[in-house]
Batch of 2 targets.
Target 1
Amino acid sequence: MRIGVVVQRYGEEIVGGAELHARWIAQRLARTHQVEVLTTCAVDYLTWENRYEPGRAEVGGVPVRRFPVARRRTPEGFDELSSKVHFFEHSDDEERRWVEAHGPVTPGLVDHLRAHERDYDALVFFSYRYWTTYHGLQVAPRKSILVPTAEEDGAVRLRVFKPFFRLPAQYAFNSPEEKDLLLRMTGARDLPGEVVGVGIEDAPVVTPDEIRKRLDLLGDFIVYVGRIEREKGCARLFDEFARFVQERQPHLNLVLIGRPVLPVPQHVNIAHLGVVSDAEKLSVIGAAKLLVHPSPFESLSMALLEAWKMERPALVNAKCAVLRGQVQRAGGGLYYGGYEEFAETLSWLLEHPAQADAMGRGGRAYFERHYAWDVVMAKYDRLLRAVAG
């Protein structure tokens, strides 16, 4: 089958979120199908500045076709408009302007789809909120699968997306909560597709003692994995963790893995490792007491799946229905609201290691049932047959 995968950024240096999700799916599909990735020349999602050369390339053995972004995104042109459409009364025209300002505006990609859509049996689009998906999926919706990566934030409530969410021939949802969210937003009785998600790639992990020695990790620690930014709840995590170690556990450390957008505070109990290899990341998670995930908005957390793959429990933000639902279904951790719940649940997990380890094993079993690669790719094959037929 000839498959086009459309995503806003694509490259081996993009190590998280929907872009990593798209790369792993594209690589797996390419084992049994003819796959071409259609994407932009951008690397930075805050500016969409063109960094790659336009044209054809190859990433991890998969053909990639890059198109230049027509204009950069700037805070002056975006932030005020974004605030208005998310939090204040606004017009439909302002929502359409938001889609353009959010970007990445890539006319060449959409022109290519219009000219060559018959060259593809199926098209897989990642992330509804980006210009490339919003305009690209409208070219051939009858053969399009949408991986929405929708979160319960302001963007999903914009009126401009309500008719758009009715277009895809099939959906690859990340979680039951994400599907429920889109059903509420559209008012539809059902949307075609399956809850699919993504697997986690294997990597040669090392023992906790070895990774501690290699990365100079001292004492007991909890770990956060992902972009270090305010929108992911990191500012709140820094404040609550600092208070927790001051009041309860002065020797506990917080280890951060990921690219910082928010400055990491200088604190004796906080260590920032930056971006590390997949093997090091999984090894650090395996050596941690638990994974902490403070984000209020997620469609699926790959970090949570990584923790469960390594049989570690998780402590997640109760405000995020997706994280709370995953933890409840798996029995793979606990969730918290305010600081007092954060302190009590974290203390309980640290003071009851046998029960915490059992939660980690429960998470691993849940991961194997729903997010093992053979399960995920069998669902993609069903979706692809549905749209190609």
Note: The first helix runs from residue 17 to 29.
Target 2
Amino acid sequence: MGISIGIVEDHSEFRQSLVYLISSFSDYTIAWAHPSVEDALEDYAATDVIMLDISLPGLSGLEAIQIFKTRNPEQKIIMLTILEDDYHIFEAIKNGADGYILKKSSPHKILDAIQQVYEGGAALTPMVAKQVMAFFKPIPAKPESPSNLTLREKEILVLIAQGMTNDSMADKLFISAQTVRNHIKNIYEKLQVHSRAQVVVKAFKEKLI
């Protein structure tokens, strides 16, 4: 069946181009595609990944993130937008988005982002990642980190920031994928976050890596 995708995009031509692009590959299937959050919620069925525009009629994409996550806490969401400003990037990540890529990204980059988020990574285009780094660079380091991360958890935190999947981390560290998942769960609890994107942001903000 492949990776199932839901799309919320109000520009019909771009929405249709996404449907055409994704449907062209046997590893992906389009479960539904709608021009608004309201329409998507009426027809909502959990998918592996939702491609969600930010600027929408009615409820915005930023408002919709937590609604979709409430419907399905495991729902992966990629913000697909023309907006590159810090506010929208960090609001999306703060609200629980798993990735943030620009509409001008190449088809290859869009498909890579879907695959990366599906595998548990955090999809950020180089430009967005650069803005994340630049945003937190001036923040002075705190004398002590309240996170109390273990050495192994800090090691995994670095690998998360590098965009590695659970399986890749397991191979690199010579531990099981389940052990990696247990460490990531502990990291989430200690940092009080709910997604890998939030982990990366908080790690840079608090100078944990």
Note: The domain at 3-135 is CATH 3.40.50.2300 (Rossmann fold).
